[in-house]
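Self-study notes.
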Amino acid sequence: MILTDVNFMSETLGLRCSMNVILPQRLLKKAKRGDKPAYRTLYLLHGHSDDHTAWQRWTSIERYAEAYNLAVVMPAVHLSFYTDMVHGGKYWQFISEEVPAVARDLFPLSAERADNFVAGLSMGGYGAFKLALTHPKRYAAAASLSGAVDINQVVKPSDDPNSDIWMEEMRNIFGDLGKVPGSEHDLFVLAEKVARGRTRPRLYQCCGTGDFLYQDNLRFRDHALSLPLNYTYEEGPGEHTWDFWDKMIQRVLAWLPINVA
């Protein structure tokens, strides 16, 4: 596998951005014949307070992806919740439009829906489902690991001592938090829209039973199961930790609708 650290100027954000890309390495014999495949691609999203290096640092994603001949694109989106921020950058446009365009311009990645998948953890689990449910014709499958899937709960104040800081951050991202439920940010609403359509990406959701987001995940699970979706849910012992995510990303790769190379 080839690991590339890409630093590029984002036209959307107006600043330099980074993403790590794992790419299958072709045999020299095939390269000489001009055999240049367009690789199936997993867009793998990081969580809150992480960056584009997190999956590479804390899991064996490169080794896992090699078994599937799968390219993996890992962009940095800072603390944006994969959203066009009210006070900040247009990170939804960045992740949904610019990142795939730049990645495909630089690397031989397939643009076919059947070859494109998205997954993420925590904030990235929210981003993964948001991408696939907003653009079901672009992604064949999406996976959320311990995802912040109930954004209506995420933007509510809590008893945490840092709740005021968190709420200010949420207002910088979403603006009027009272308008978040039922909006384009609400995965429950997006799931209903997809369920009414003809194109429905496969969805995989997992969460550890000791995770602080466990109840949020159960609420989304129950909602998803009430809809005609191609949906898989798994849970087990685990908290909001890399031990759980390193194990479950292997489950995700085995679940993706691809054939082992």
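Second protein, same conventions, sequence then structure:
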Amino acid sequence: MITIEQVDHLGIRVTDPRRAIAFYQLLGFQLEKEVDFDAVVILKNAAGMELNLIVNGVDTTDGRNILMDVPEKHPGLTHVALRVSDIVATMTALKTNGIAITQGPVTFGDGHVSVFVRDPDRTVLELRARLAPGVAETIEGLVFYDPEG
């Protein structure tokens, strides 16, 4: 058996590294290193989470995410869920920075609330927080998750 200890990093292919870096900086990631022997830019956040932006993407789908925006359900990684400390503050920061919430806020009935956003290349990110008792009632527009939504 292989023992996996944790996620080491996420690799996200992008078409425009400057645009992607600017987006992920709004989510708290900072430029760590631009690799000189590969098409990779490394970002890290204060919690030590690492993103590797693979900067050789070519958009051949007219801005559609092939895993999420077409009727056929192709296999692959559909989204990444990132834990945030405060979903209300997160939604405020998204609005302030002009990042559209593409779905949510939603609850799954398990004490968590999520919002879904897209990066500039339409990669889906779920921003998710566990709520303290009574907070759900204060979140405007909160609905139960609809997988077709």
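Instructor comment on the second fold: The longest strand covers residues 101-107.
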